[in-house]
Write a structure and sequence with these properties.
With about 140 residues, the protein is of the alpha+beta class. It is about 40% helix and about 15% strand.
Length: about 140
């Protein structure tokens, strides 16, 4: 988390209480919330917080590489505060997003032989989750 804070400060942007709260919320959840859910989670702590402020800060944090914006077939963008190497499963029925930490999904050695430098690999696997599949 300290690296995240230093990155914000080195970019000459203010580390506001709201920005820090949004970043902390995302770093401490595995639910991949959208802006509305992030806003709902923080509005009691910050009564003057606006949804526009949440959107602006989420986009800023994503542009800085501190969080990941996840575009799915759902209508809204979801956000992930976990910057470790992992992939996502997106349920086509309920929209639930789950982390997949199985690194064997991609043979990185094979890919790295074809390209000079790989910074990040994004992979979304779409299907039906177990909960929706048993309905």
């Amino acid at each position: 988390m300290e690296l995240s804070l230093n990155k914000i400060k080195s970019n000459k942007n203010r580390l506001t209480k709201q920005r820090l709260a949004i970043l902390n919320y995302l770093k401490n959840t595995t639910s991949h919330p959208d802006a509305e859910k992030t806003y709902q989670a923080l509005k009691k702590q910050f009564p003057n917080l606006s949804l526009a402020t949440v959107y602006r800060n989420l986009n800023y944090l994503a542009s800085m590489g501190l969080i990941e914006a996840l575009t799915t077939n759902q209508s809204s963008t979801h956000f992930d505060g976990d910057n470790s190497t992992h992939f996502h499963f997106v349920c086509n029925d309920c929209g639930q997003i789950s982390d997949i930490f199985e690194k064997d999904l991609i043979n990185l050695a094979l890919i790295q032989n074809k390209f000079n430098l790989i910074n990040k690999i994004n992979l979304n696997i779409n299907g039906t989750c177990n909960h929706c599949g048993t309905k």
